[in-house]
Amino acid sequence: MSSLKVGIQLTQNPEKYKYLLSVLKSELHTTSGLEFVHIPTDEKLTKMIPELDILTTYHIKETSFANATAQLKWIHFGIAGLEHSLFPDILKSKTIITNASGVHAGPVSEFVMSAILYFAKRFKDCQKFMQTKNWTQWQVAKQMVQLKGKTIGIIGFGSLGKAIAKKAKAFDMKVIATRRLQKKVDYKKTVDELIPISKLSHLLKNSDFVVVACPLTPLTRGMIGKKELTRMNSSAFIINIARGEIINEAALINALQNKTLAGAALDVFEKEPLPKESPLFALDNVFLSPHISGNFPEYQHDVMVQFADNLNRYLAGKDLKNRVCKKRLY
Length: 330
Known about the structure:
By secondary structure, the protein is of the alpha/beta class. It is 34% helix and 17% strand.
């Protein structure tokens, strides 16, 4: 039997590649019959892709995939959101697609709770106190929010949503969550109400903090617009750690400027990098970060461990984890 050729396009650095390959090999049950190929660039991928059986990468261009043959059985993406790589040819192909869903769940859920605490505990006012030295104890104290008994609404209940719900429960918060495939209202250990997406307005009306944690698909693009934002309470905050295009940014800026929303924590934006002239920078009720909520130093190591687990399954003829549905696009 000829060996399986596994292309690894996760780093350009040869030393980093050696390290990642050692992580992969240490997690595999066997390396017999496997040939690993370092793919540092898209140009190299375009050239090598006809010979590959398996590929792990962060993205793929249509021009590279156009050279793939039926030999390419599986692509594992080292990220969760694949909207830029799911073009028609890859969706029509028989190539299996998996993603890195779950790798970010810990850091992203920590980030979400940090953003909630930033607003609830008035850290901006504390920062201001440090700068001005003005003792504003009672002005700040009366604006403090206790999370116990407050409601967090989570849009998207995949690995991110579940991790966020679990942490919110540790703060004694009430959790309402929605997911696309939910048919009826359900109750789970970390969720007080798990509802169908058709009941989104119920989540928006009843949440003190709304967290966008769903993938970007044709169905979720622009899902939170002017109408949805007006359903939220003026004392509520919205947090987006998913994709910028899920929220209509102009409508959100308008709501924040008019104070019909208390505030927003945004890690993602319609256009990235966020243009320097964006009105968001001038608002005093936002927390902005440069798309970093899912990052942590061990990221590539964890992606490799996850890929190894799936490669073990593939070699054993078992179902792969995190398989992306080519109809739902996640």
